[in-house]
């Protein structure tokens, strides 16, 4: 029996996540055409987004920010038509998502708002969680492609709705990590072993997969990036702008933005976003971790981002001199 012909897929943006998505698609038997702003030694690497659109009908985008998304869709526009579906995975603002969708519609192409949660190791295993906003029929056409890299696919509404949900979940992760750092600082300043937090959290309602991953890393001063500080800062800045547009205050988000900006100014931009714990200077590298509190990777935000910008408001978090 002849094997069914699989749709050609384009992947634009070969960072930590995009490169792994492309590799998994190849393993699954898809013909994958790729482009990245910086040239890579990848199979089927093309010279422009336009060439990707000429070669593939479903195009997955993993660029760094809203400006890059708009630029990419614009660059493809000459080749886009009714058979194309653009699937945007970049974390950008809802308004930028809707603008990109409008540009695709002008070329009679369809567009899915498709941010995801999941970090480097999750992407390697093809277990990302996709949140999808947009046309249901377009989603069903893309589903076999998305399933290669998906643990779950969650439809959440129209264009921009999935992006808003992604920003909300990243905000939760940011402020939770800030709170964990502050809790460790309190213990440290009061002479209480930091290991105590590892022992109590599994028995406490505040425990989470995120806490299990980040607390041991903060104690041991291990900030190998699963999701860089500069990228989380970018996403929290989007949340602050969304709050401003909605007429609501987001003080916890503002506080994290202040801590993140301070860390970026100290050269920590490419470290994991939990590096804000370094503001308190409590590394305890020799402390053994309790066997009941081992890192269990949660679904973390994706590793994508942009050059940091100055937050609209600075919040002083630290009791530093």
Give a description of the structure.
By secondary structure, this protein is of the alpha/beta class. It folds into 2 domains: 9-158, Rossmann fold, CATH 3.40.50; 164-280, Orthogonal Bundle (N-(1-d-carboxylethyl)-l-norvaline Dehydrogenase, domain 2). 43% of the residues lie in helices and 12% in strands. It has 11 helices and 8 strands. It has helices at residues 18-27, 49-55, 66-76, 94-106, 120-124, 136-147, 161-189, 195-200, 209-220, 229-246, 251-265; strands at residues 9-12, 32-35, 58-61, 85-88, 110-113, 116-117, 128-134, 150-157. Strands 1, 2, 3, 4, 5, 6, 7 and 8 form an 8-stranded mixed β-sheet that branches. Helix 3 packs parallel to helix 4. It is elongated. Mean pLDDT is 88; it is low at 288-298 and 301-321.
């Amino acid at each position: 029996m002849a094997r069914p012909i699989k749709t050609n897929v384009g992947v634009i943006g070969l960072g930590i996540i995009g490169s792994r998505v492309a590799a998994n698609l190849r393993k699954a038997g898809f013909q994958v055409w790729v482009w990245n702003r910086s040239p890579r030694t990848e199979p089927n690497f093309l010279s422009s987004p336009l060439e990707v659109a000429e070669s593939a009908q479903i195009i997955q985008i993993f660029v760094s920010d809203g400006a890059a998304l708009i630029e990419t869709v614009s660059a493809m526009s000459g080749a886009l038509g009714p058979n194309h579906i653009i699937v945007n995975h970049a974390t950008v603002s809802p308004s930028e998502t809707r603008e990109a969708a409008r540009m695709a519609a002008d070329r009679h192409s369809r567009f899915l708002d498709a941010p995801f949660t999941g970090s480097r190791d999750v992407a390697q295993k093809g277990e990302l969680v996709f949140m999808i906003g947009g046309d249901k029929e377009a989603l069903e056409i893309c589903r076999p492609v998305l399933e290669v890299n998906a643990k779950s696919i969650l439809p959440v509404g129209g264009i921009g709705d999935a992006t808003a949900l992604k920003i909300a979940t990243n905000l939760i992760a940011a402020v939770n990590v800030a709170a964990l750092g502050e809790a460790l600082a309190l213990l440290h300043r009061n002479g209480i072993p930091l290991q105590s937090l590892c022992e109590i959290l599994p028995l406490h309602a505040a425990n989470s997969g995120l806490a299990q991953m980040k607390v041991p890393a903060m104690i041991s001063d291990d900030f190998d990036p699963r999701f860089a500080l500069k990228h989380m800062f970018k996403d929290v800045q989007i949340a602050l702008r969304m709050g401003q547009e909605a007429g609501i205050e987001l003080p916890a988000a503002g506080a994290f933005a202040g801590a993140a900006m301070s860390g970026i100014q100290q050269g920590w931009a490419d470290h994991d976003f939990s590096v804000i714990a370094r503001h308190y200077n409590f590394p305890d590298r020799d402390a053994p971790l309790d066997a009941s509190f081992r890192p269990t990777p949660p679904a973390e935000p994706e590793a994508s981002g942009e050059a940091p910008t100055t937050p609209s408001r600075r919040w002083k978090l630290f009791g530093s001199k």
